[in-house]
Amino acid sequence: MTKIKINAEIEKDGESFIFYVNIFNISEETLKLNLSNNTGGLVRESVHLYDKNKDRLHKGISYMTPINDFTNLTSIETGESAQLILKARLEEIENDLFLDFKGANFNVNQDETYYFQIEYLGAKSDMAPFNID
């Protein structure tokens, strides 16, 4: 049975955010996981944002990016971890502000606190807070 533990840390870089997602293998076997977000599918299926009241935000535009190679398996030995880096940038479109990931975006507001959570293979990270300044 696949058992993982996930945590996430967030770093702001100008108008962009970098989400460092660490996946720890707590099962008794080596895991082979596709941790790539090349098509945006990982964000569409796994990333959730919550507002300051911890109410889940709906994803805005969901889109797929074509790629040529689907063989991005990562092996994680028992007791080891792998890191996935997801990037998002703030983008203003027609007076609305969006946090735009590869694969999906979320409508956000300036000067608000939000919470990032990733859910993958039945495991969820804690809700990591970040601010849109």
Q: What does this molecule look like?
A:
This protein is mainly beta. It has a single domain, classed as Immunoglobulin-like (Sandwich), CATH 2.60.40.2970. Helix content is 5%, strand content 53%. It has one helix and eleven strands, in the order βββαββββββββ. The strands form three sheets. It has a five-stranded antiparallel β-sheet, with no helix packed on it. Strands 4, 9, 10 and 11 form a four-stranded antiparallel β-sheet that branches. A hairpin with a 2-residue loop joins strand 9 and strand 10. The longest helix has 6 residues. The N and C termini lie far apart (42 Å). The model has no long low-confidence stretch (mean pLDDT 90). It comes from Chryseobacterium sediminis. This is DUF4352 domain-containing protein.
Secondary structure blueprint with pairings:
Blueprint: E1 4-13, E2 16-25, E3 31-34, H1 41-46, E4 47-50, E5 73-76, E6 81-93, E7 96-101, E8 105-108, E9 112-120, E10 123-124, E11 128-132
Antiparallel strand pairs: 1-2, 2-6, 3-5, 4-9, 6-7, 7-8, 9-10, 9-11
Estimate what percentage of residues fall within beta strands: over 45%
Which stretches are low in confidence, meaning pLDDT under 50 for 5 or more residues running? none
**Amino-to-carboxy terminus distance:** 42 Å
CATH fold-level assignment: Immunoglobulin-like
Shape assignment: globular
How many separate structural domains?
A: 1
Work out the helix count.
Answer: 1
